[in-house]
Each structure stands twice: as structure tokens, then as C-alpha cells.
Design brief:
single chain, 148 residues, mainly alpha, TerB-like, Co-chaperone DjlA N-terminal domain-containing protein, DjlA_N
Length: 148
């Protein structure tokens, strides 16, 4: 279903993604991180829907549809290294740092900082070219929002 999209994404020298494709790729990355601990639960799916709705100005129904498409894309996407490197080449830094904050929000949605999710998020941050400092600041913003 997403073969053409994925081939464009992982092609040498990919072009910047149109907004709709960037939304899909970045939401698929949220799904990948949420699934990394083997427990992709309703809280994580709801968090992804809220993130998509807020970030992209979508209705709840459209956010759920985007997540469904992202789940299908994530299932077909290549390994995390190739997938995130492709996103890095196609999405600007500002959007990538916003995605790291969203990823932390998903990771912390269940109130548990799982070692597998934590490890994958460190890898994803690095592969997206987001510094450890920016990733830590993103995590702190998410935690501060949860404590407020």
C-alpha cells in the first residue's frame, strides 16, 4: 500500500516531503516508538491521536484516520535506522525536534519510562540528527506538562 511512498522516502537524495507525507511519516515514527515495548495500548494510541490533532489541526476523526494510516506505514517501513535517516533527510530540524517532544509524550503516556522505549528514543533522536541536549529538553518539557 505504501511501497511508492517508502521508495521515495528511502531513495538517495530524497526531496523534502510535502506536508501530508511528512505528517504520515512522523506519525508512523510515533507508532514505531509506542510499539517498541511490545505493549501498544489504548493510552498510547489516544496520545498519538491527540498529538496529531493538536500538531496538525485535525479533527479527532481525522487524527484517528492518520494514526491508522501511520500504523499501516510503520508495519511496512524498513528498519528504524533507514526509516529515521530518510525522515531526517526530508524533514527540517524544527519539525524533527517537535517530533522528539511528541515521542517523549508517547513514551511517557503510560507513566512508565520503559528501558526499551528509552533506548529506542535515544537512537531515534540521534538518527534524526537531534542533539542529546535538545532531546533531554524535550523530555523535560513533557514531564513538566504532566506534573502541572
Amino acid at each position: 500500500m505504501f511501497a511508492d511512498f517508502l521508495s521515495r522516502l528511502v531513495a538517495p537524495n530524497p526531496r523534502p516531503l510535502p506536508d501530508a507525507d511528512a505528517r504520515l511519516a512522523l506519525t508512523a515514527l510515533l507508532v514505531r516508538v509506542a510499539r517498541s515495548d511490545g505493549d501498544y495500548d489504548a493510552a498510547e494510541r489516544a496520545r498519538i491521536d491527540r498529538i496529531a490533532a493538536a500538531r496538525y489541526g485535525l479533527s479527532p476523526e481525522d487524527a484517528e484516520t492518520l494514526r491508522g494510516d501511520a500504523e499501516a506505514l510503520e508495519a511496512e517501513a524498513p528498519d528504524t535506522v533507514r526509516f529515521t535517516r530518510a525522515i531526517k533527510d526530508a524533514v527540517d530540524y524544527e519539525h524533527r525536534t517537535a517530533v522528539i517532544e511528541a515521542l517523549w509524550s508517547v513514551v511517557l503516556a503510560d507513566g512508565v519510562r520503559d528501558p526499551e522505549e528509552d533506548s529506542l528514543l535515544r537512537l531515534v533522536s540521534s538518527l534524526l540528527g537531534v542533539s542529546d541536549r535538545d532531546s533531554a529538553l524535550a523530555r523535560q518539557r513533557v514531564q513538566a506538562g504532566r506534573d502541572a
